[in-house]
Design goal:
This protein is of the alpha+beta class.
Length: about 300
């Protein structure tokens, strides 16, 4: 109902209550109740003698913002972790591209169980994926998500982002977004992958360590969390449905901030150091040691030295 109201209000400067009533198939009193609810949620909707006018909308990723995909979106003002809720939904058999999104997480986490600071104003979501791809190529999902997110941020806000292996989006070595994925798989197939993404959008990053930056600090354009999610969703879904995994590594390397640098990669049990010289076709990072020997690291937390 709210999705249709928004669609109608965006089609004209002023929309009468009668027109909304007919379009929605409900009484004008019911229309008014929905309008009131939306006003309480931050929509600036003026009511006059000729009807209703939408002045502005919050950037909150409410389900109805996504139109026909609204039933795939689970929105929470506050939640412990979008990943935890998405895990429950995935185990229950929810469809691919189900999304759990929150204004704030109280127990958000990054790689190796590190805390992800989830302050108000950021975009925090987990997308349930059910990709048809070889298990060995699963690491490409993180790289592909980073590529598509960087492309969207440039298209919407003119931000020139770079990518740190395997899961960060940076601007001048300051973290703009982070990506975390968790997978359930059998020997020969992937059951689901939960892709968690946190983007600094409006949140204050001045006290965050290591250094971070937000979208609103990098552009003069109006910034919307809902728009970022909607555009990323569209692009990333198209990529997964097309299944063009051979494109991912070349696209990632074209925007890489890691290649050519001395790095330290920390896993649960080991630490590897060397110069990052290339990325394998399955997404593994190739390191060159001081003695010229090379090794490949397929997962871990990467630190630029």
């Amino acid at each position: 109902m709210k999705a249709e109201i928004i669609a109608q209000l965006r089609c004209a400067d002023v929309v009468s209550g009668e027109r909304l009533s007919q379009a929605l198939g409900v009484s004008r009193v019911a229309v008014w109740k929905h309008i009131r609810q939306m006003q309480e949620l931050g929509y600036k909707i003026e009511a006059g003698s000729k009807g209703y006018r939408l002045r502005s909308a919050p950037d909150t990723p409410f389900p109805w913002v996504f139109g026909q995909h609204a039933d795939q979106v689970h929105y929470y003002p506050e939640i412990s972790s979008t990943m935890d809720v998405a895990m429950d939904l995935a185990r229950q058999g929810c469809p691919a591209f189900t999304i759990v999104v929150a204004d704030r997480q109280t127990k958000g986490r990054g790689r190796l169980q590190r805390t992800w600071q989830s302050m108000l104003g950021g975009l925090y979501f987990t997308m349930v994926l059910r990709p048809r791809m070889p298990l060995v190529l699963a690491p490409l999902i993180n790289l592909a998500a980073a590529v598509d997110l960087a492309i969207i941020l440039e298209a919407l806000y003119g931000i020139q982002a770079r990518l740190k292996w395997p899961n960060d989006v940076l601007v001048e070595d300051r973290k703009l977004a982070g990506i975390l994925s968790q997978m359930a798989a059998e020997t020969d197939r992937i059951d689901y992958v939960n892709l968690g993404i946190g983007v600094n959008v409006h949140n204050d990053t001045r006290q965050v360590q290591p250094p971070a930056v937000s979208v609103c600090q990098l552009t003069d354009r109006p910034v919307s969390r809902a728009d970022i999610l909607a555009h990323f969703w569209e692009r990333f879904e198209q990529r997964l449905r097309a299944g063009r995994w051979t494109d991912v590594v070349p696209q990632w390397k074209a925007q890489a901030a890691t290649l050519g640098r001395l790095v330290k990669v920390q896993t649960l049990y080991d630490v590897f150091e060397g110069r990052a010289v290339d990325v394998e076709e399955n997404g593994g990072l190739i390191l060159e040691k001081e003695d010229g020997r090379r090794l490949t690291v397929v997962y871990g937390d990467c630190f630029h030295q």
